[in-house]
Amino acid sequence: MTVTHEETFAATVQDFVRFTEPELDLEDICLEVYAGSAEVSRAIARRVRHASAVDTRAEVLLEGKRAADRDALTNVTFLVGPAERLPHLDRTFTLLLCRDALGSAADPAAVVGELVRVSRPGAGIVLADAGLGVAALVALLEAAGADVKRTNDAGYVCAAAP
After folding, report:
1. Which tens digit of pLDDT belongs to each residue from 89-125?
2. Do 48 and 28 form a contact (C-beta atoms < 8 A)?
3. Which of these, 29, 36, 84, 91, could form a disulfide with 110 (CB 3.0-4.6 Å)?
4. What is the pTM of this model?
């Protein structure tokens, strides 16, 4: 049996969602940065109050918007912008997500700093980046003042915002 790229990608999204599950709450206001077509935001949309997907590529976000519309997901918004300079007020979100993108960021520390800035105290911050690895993600979160709660061998890290 041949596994397609799409099937592999969908499986990694589901793995990330499973790792995120202990943090999910129906009252969460979620932010996904480097969201692409917001696969993660769309996967958790029915389990949170609201999800915002941010990416610099409008055309990819538009694909996600079309998919959200097709699936009747009315609580996901799509924003074009850089993760290093989020257009949100301090202490806005209760759950923050970034999957497999920090390693390609020009300044991963700035991205993590922004995630912490827009998180409410105690908010869950879930990062994954197999290229950077767990140790680097933990170091970035701790440098930003977050308290790392759990990790796994797949390169996923969950922390609580200060």
Report:
1. 999 999 999 999 999 999 999 999 999 999 999 999 9
2. yes
3. 84
4. 0.95
